[in-house]
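Technical annex, item 7. During the second reporting period the consortium partners agreed on a shared format for inverse folding records so that results from different sites could be compared directly. Each record opens with the tokenized structure and is followed by the designed sequence. A conforming record, contributed by the partner at site C, is shown below for reference.
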């Protein structure tokens, strides 16, 4: 059995543009893990621009990482574009009409998403739309970590939402 293409990127100072450029040539990736833990403060590649570049829409240029099925992001940043993140996840799920599983138009459907925050609170109400996706089969984990301790947890299916607010 052939191993799926997987890339793990941890604690390396790289701009979001450089990360996007690198991912353009890695179009067969199925699993992507990025952690900005240990990078220079305010130099995280996990930006609104990066998140938006993963969005699936009507693009004449093609889509970034069309085979992506599993995405894990871990951020030390105190700010994050939650709305862009949720929109991107939805675009890689709702673009598939047949039970939201499989490949449509050359873009694979996400199977799991994990987002870990180390230095910011998670607003549970903002992330509620992902619970619907979880109930349709997408594994969703959003964690607020405070000194390594999980603050709150709601479990329904795979859905985990851990935060204070």
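Designed sequence (site C submission):
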């Amino acid at each position: 059995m052939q191993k799926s293409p997987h890339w793990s990127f941890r604690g390396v100072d790289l701009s979001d543009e450089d990360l996007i450029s690198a991912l353009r040539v890695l179009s067969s990736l199925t699993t992507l893990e990025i952690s900005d833990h240990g990078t220079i403060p305010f130099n995280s590649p996990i930006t609104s621009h990066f998140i938006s570049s993963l969005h699936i829409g009507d693009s004449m240029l093609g889509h970034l990482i069309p085979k992506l099925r599993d995405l894990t992001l871990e951020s030390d940043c105190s700010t994050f574009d939650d709305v862009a993140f949720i929109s991107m996840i939805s675009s890689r799920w709702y673009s598939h009409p047949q039970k939201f599983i499989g490949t449509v138009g050359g873009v694979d459907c996400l199977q799991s998403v994990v987002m870990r925050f180390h230095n910011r609170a998670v607003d549970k109400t903002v992330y509620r739309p992902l619970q619907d996706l979880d109930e349709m089969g997408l594994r969703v984990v959003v964690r607020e970590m405070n000194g390594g301790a999980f603050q709150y947890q709601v479990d329904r299916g795979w859905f985990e939402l851990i935060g204070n607010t």
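The radius of gyration is 15 Å. Residues 6-162 form one domain. All partners now use this format for quarterly exchanges.
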